[in-house]
Amino acid sequence: MGGKFDIIVAMRHVITAQQFDRALIEQLCSRASELEKLLDKKQLEKVELFKGRMLFSVFYEPSTRTRTSFSAAAQHLGMQVVSTENAREFSSAAKGETLEDTIKVLCQYRPDIIVLRHHETGAADLAASVSSVPIINAGDGAGQHPTQALLDLFTIKKEIGRLDNLKVVVGGDLAHGRTGRSLAHSLTKFKGNSLVFVAPPGLEINQDIKDYLSKIKVPYSETVDIPSALKDADVVYWTRVQKERFDSTKLKTTFVIGKKEVAAMKPSAIIMHPLPRVDEITVEVDKDPRAAYFRQAGNGMFMRMALIEWVLADKS
Amino acid sequence: MGGKFDIIVAMRHVITAQQFDRALIEQLCSRASELEKLLDKKQLEKVELFKGRMLFSVFYEPSTRTRTSFSAAAQHLGMQVVSTENAREFSSAAKGETLEDTIKVLCQYRPDIIVLRHHETGAADLAASVSSVPIINAGDGAGQHPTQALLDLFTIKKEIGRLDNLKVVVGGDLAHGRTGRSLAHSLTKFKGNSLVFVAPPGLEINQDIKDYLSKIKVPYSETVDIPSALKDADVVYWTRVQKERFDSTKLKTTFVIGKKEVAAMKPSAIIMHPLPRVDEITVEVDKDPRAAYFRQAGNGMFMRMALIEWVLADKS
Amino acid sequence: MGGKFDIIVAMRHVITAQQFDRALIEQLCSRASELEKLLDKKQLEKVELFKGRMLFSVFYEPSTRTRTSFSAAAQHLGMQVVSTENAREFSSAAKGETLEDTIKVLCQYRPDIIVLRHHETGAADLAASVSSVPIINAGDGAGQHPTQALLDLFTIKKEIGRLDNLKVVVGGDLAHGRTGRSLAHSLTKFKGNSLVFVAPPGLEINQDIKDYLSKIKVPYSETVDIPSALKDADVVYWTRVQKERFDSTKLKTTFVIGKKEVAAMKPSAIIMHPLPRVDEITVEVDKDPRAAYFRQAGNGMFMRMALIEWVLADKS
What we know:
3 copies of one chain form a homotrimer.
Chain A: H1 22-40, E1 54-59, H2 64-76, E2 80-84, H3 99-108, E3 113-118, H4 123-130, E4 135-140, H5 146-160, E5 167-171, H6 178-187, E6 194-198, H7 207-215, E7 220-223, H8 226-231, E8 235-238, H9 249-254, H10 259-263, E9 270-272, H11 293-313
């Protein structure tokens, strides 16, 4: 598989979104697209698959969607999967074992990759420091969720055709939500992008991101005027606001993208959402070709397939 | 695989027992029998299997037996399985996502079939209405459990050799139990069958079924005289009565099939039970060749294999 | 596969450590070593694997480590795995079904092996009495855990090169811990071994084992002087003492193997531990080549692979 990726390192972990530069992101997007085409044509079996390779899916907190996506990705690639949903039993929570010891034991069972979801920030880094096999971070507490960040970029690339010169509206609870914040960060690796943040009062994006954007001269603005924000957006990245975080009933009903809002958007724009969606995008929007959020979920699996390939590429 | 089944439709879901007509039921029974022979001779690998095909097993409520049976069925057929036992985390119970959204997301991960178990009546129908892949209903609340209905018919066909001209005794808690009620319904598709319902007082079969049987002229009777009911039965379908539903201690001990009851049955008769069994059939009956309930459980897996083949037949 | 093992019986279950004699233990150790070499050279696919064979992993109580190890073992051997972590739903705990009925139903789904973990002593034996396929006991309550016993012997054989003429120190909570007690038993099958038991006051090994050792003339001693015990040991088998079982704070800190203790050990000695480890061996010991406990965990998987092969050998 080595030929598919140019950059070969001693061992490839997937820990943060920041570790991927522009070139590698584009390479991964391109490979994810190829894999999607091959799978949809039932031609995946014609490519070199990872028969006899094994992925351990180790989840310390439940995330059925991410776990299913990784399991399907690995199995579409011909890998075997051993899945643990209750990994806290392995751990300090149960008998006082450290994460490092758990990872060392798991490595002894000879997986080729460990996918780790953990409730503590920094867990993936810690795991990688003792692991004899590549770690893929499937989310570590309030920390990183790099495969989500990559699938968001992949979706924009696939739908719009470019990752530069975009006006991106990021909406929802930007104070607590990781995905919007992470996308803003990722987009700074590309050229000519500008950001508009739309958040209910009290749930605005943190100052540190804004300072960073100012420092690296990425234009941004903040507004609560949804129609004006959406009007000339290329990408609308909408996220869930937990009901208990709204301080007014009025907001609950107005912070919603519906048919009317979409009608005013550019024909070439797309609407993204990390899902699950509750009321913040109405169901009638789903039929609009600009509604990209379900395709986005699928892109997650293809990006995970590309990452598994990339991680295994230096070993074949 | 297309040659194995005659009827080709745009997309085949398995939602209700009623969707299967006599011809298709017999075709499925015949194929399930073939699959059993092939597996038992270790010749399954010689037939065309579903390598590279993937089944998602999505259970919103636990049913270890059904889940294991489907997983084994799919894997015996060479498929890959991604299994979710805690699907409620996906759903409204957790973050407010609708079942429709969940199914749409899962379809994006490119399964070939979704097996769905859900706590709400109508869930399988709802899922099928938005799914891009076939849905197999593995039980939806108080609603349907079509694979159970089909495995019961398959068991009768395999053990007795016919599905017509049978005297079938259905016993147990017929007011609450789904399986007895469902079998009564299924048997009306065939000719010359008659039914005897045996239920503790207060747990009799509902009037709607009796009205239906009268209307379509299927003879039935009701009794609490177990010996006389069993005497000339071809099939005794016995089910569990939950202890708290018995209103008398006496009944608890008399509503039981034991060695003596079986001794009075026809040599060619069979005893069925959807399992789990508690005390309502004594363990000493198990050795009698007429005790078909464990074979019946195995038939469930073979019928599920046949259904998976049928569902995939229009795509190969 | 028949050629790999000499002893062929009608059906091979793995129920107790005692069922394995010296010759078979050495055969299994030798095969486990071979399997490790083959897997690490990625040559497992060159040997005859168990494609199309299926293992059911049925756990009535959680044991993520053991379950993962068995799943990985079976899948490395090319088998399919159907895994149940919540098997109590099958059972009396849920609807009153007996373990015997559950096993009979599972056998109907045509697994080739059932791995059973159960909370009740004697469960594996009971399962084997009704099963039509081999049962591997993965721990039954306070009873047996034969694969742990075998992996411990395998580790000594692999690390030291022999299972005779060893001075073995067994330390920790020997009153409650199963592993230390079990190892002492296993070692009596070999020649010239002597045992030293090191336990906190009140947690000493039970009299029955000491009586047995006396009777069969295996020398043993008891001490709380860790340095003197370790000095000329070949094997130090250390286990966890649950904090609430220590009756003095002093002991908590002194019942620990650290760098200093290891420094005084023989260069050829090894330190074993069934894991999880908490504080009773310090992390700095891990780097010492004599620290064998993580390799020991891996040996567990290879021994399980050898046992699966052995169990299936009479059927191929």
